[in-house]
Amino acid sequence: MIFDNFRRQLRQEAQLWRDEGLIDADFYQIIAQRYQFNNLETAARDRFVFILIAVGSTLLGLGVITFVAANWQALSREARLILLLGLFLTTNIAGFSLWRQPASNNISPRDRKRRQQIFGEGLLLLGALTIGANIALLAQMFHINGSSYELFLIWGLAVLLMAYSLHLTSLGMLALILVLIGYSTGLFDWYFARNELTLGRLVIEHIPLVFGVAFVPLAWWCRSRWIFRITAIAFVISWQFHLKSLEVLTYRDAPPWIAVTAFALPPALLWSYDDLLFGRVSSRLFQPFARTLTLGFFSIMFYVLSFRSLWETRTVGYQTQFKNTSLATWLPFIDVAIFTVLALWQWWHLLRPTRNQERHRMDLKTIFIGSMIVITALLIFVNQAITPIPVIPIFAFNALLAVLGFGLIREALELGQREAFWGGIVLITLQIISRMLEYDTALLFKSFVFVLCGVAVIFAGLWFERYLSSLPASSNSSVHRS
Predict the structure, then answer these.
(1) What is the distance between the alpha carbons of residues 338 and 343, in angstroms, rounded to a whole number?
(2) Where are the alpha helices (DSSP H) in 142-168?
(3) Does residue 63 or residue 3 have the better pLDDT?
(4) Residue range 373-423, pLDDT digits in tens
(5) Burial of 470 (0-12, 13-18, 19+ CB in 10 A)
(6) How far apart are CA 308 and CA 312, in angstroms?
(7) Integer Cα distance of 201 and 210 in angstroms
(8) Is residue 242 within 8 Å of residue 308, measured between CB atoms?
(9) Phi and psi (nearest 5°) for 251?
(10) How far is CA 389 from CA 12, 260, 303, 308, 401, in A?
(11) CA 244-264-305 angle, 5° bins
(12) What residues contact residue 338 under an 8 Å CB cut-off, 6+ apart?
């Protein structure tokens, strides 16, 4: 969609250039053929039709399910089974046939084939939605007990198989949403673990590994940025929930490797991620977001760890507190080992010597990020394993937060990026206000700090916009593209 917006703007500019005589009609036709101006309206119409078909298929599926539920008691078990399987098979077979059917009309065959594929994809979505109804109704028929989160997890994994077999982004997004719903609804049950071990509980206990193994390769196959983005964010959040990172820091007798891997492993994995390390990827499609997410994780982590209450509150009884949640219930050590080996392998490829000068310049930033990861791991390990040193981590993470904020501002000045500049400004302002509110200060001093921060933010923003306007035209164009 971003590329379509660029083509639409380029078409307007090219038409203006042609009308003003800057380019002739032949050169305009060359640009139009290269960027396919004629297909812009078709692509917009196809997206609108797909949205209509997806919404209509959802409503149609709900209507059929409601109709079946209304007459459910009047049907025999055999009739129920035939009806459910027939609905599932009909929608999927018809959708697959239309999705793969070539154009048979000589009039605009490309448009006809595209519309058939869109309608077939809508039917496949309808078939994927009927899977959940089939699972729920069949479980009710045969008196199979289960939780609602298990239904969503099994449903999501079934749709995931369809997405892998057809390489459809829409099915992949649906599978990811269903798994996230199942995980969020089953997280409470997982925290208060029971003794029985079911398939749903096993998936939730290993959900970071499930995200990494099941959905990242699907993003490669579908070349979908959104699947990768949501998967990466879900991995980071679920990793913190499973390791109970903030709770672990408050216990003196907690295993130190838990806190170290909770805070150091996600940025190590994300920053060293490279699409070219994996076979089916020929371009760095997802690496920019992985590195942006690393900076976002650092920002949140350094800000949270800069509060003194987190380090000064020290209790004992970790084993007593979590005696009912052993390694089989919160996060197995094997998951940590797998991601640690993966992170080391990625960093080895990232830091190995190369003759590429551009890669050498990037290594300076990589070394800076790696140093932040090492400092974080060392501070947490010493505080947890050797001796409590609350003063040093408080000072160190405040310093790291300030360094990260000024580093973002410096990068924004070099590259002319508004997002990096305002990210650094927000971090520094938030740090100053938080430290002022955290410590016992007078009300007049707090008022002075708020006023000073407000004036500084206004002047910094105005100065940066003036700085951008003074950059060369090529730099300004890169800013607008970013």
Answers:
(1) 9
(2) 148-166
(3) 63
(4) 999 999 999 888 887 888 899 999 999 999 999 999 988 888 888 888 999
(5) exposed
(6) 6
(7) 13
(8) no
(9) -105, 130
(10) 62, 16, 18, 11, 19
(11) 65
(12) 209
Q: Are 248 and 258 in contact (CB under 8 A)?
A: yes
Task: Decide: 113 and 98 in contact? Cβ < 8 Å.
Answer: no
**In whole angstroms, what is the distance from residue 373 CA to residue 268 CA?**
7
Burial of 181-216, coded b for 16+ CB within 10 Å and e otherwise, reads bbbebbeebbeebeeeeeebbebbbbbbbbbbebbb
CA distance 341 to 347: 10
| CA pair distance 394, 408, nearest whole angstrom | 21
Give the contacts of 137 (CB within 8 A, at least 6 positions apart): 68, 72, 80, 84
Task: Give the DSSP H or E segment for 323.
Answer: none
**CA dihedral over 250, 254, 256, 258, signed as positive or negative:** negative
Q: Output the pLDDT for position 113.
A: 62
Q: Which pTM value belongs to this model?
A: 0.79
Q: How many residues does the chain have?
A: 482
Q: Give 221-256 pLDDT, tens digit per residue.
A: 888 889 999 999 999 999 988 888 888 887 776 788
d(CA 144, CA 136): 9
What pLDDT digit, counting tens, does each position of 146-166 carry?
Answer: 677 888 898 999 999 999 988
Q: Rounded CA gap, 452 and 459, in Å? A: 11
Q: Looking at residue 334, what is its pLDDT? A: 82
Question: With b meaning 16 or more CB within 10 Å and e meaning fewer, what string describes 441-462?
Answer: eeeeeeeebeeebeeeeeebee
115 confidence band (pLDDT: 50, 70, 90):
low
Helix extents (H) in 192-286:
199-205, 207-210, 216-222, 225-243, 245-249, 256-271
Asked if 311 contacts 246 with a C-beta cutoff of 8 angstroms, the reply is no
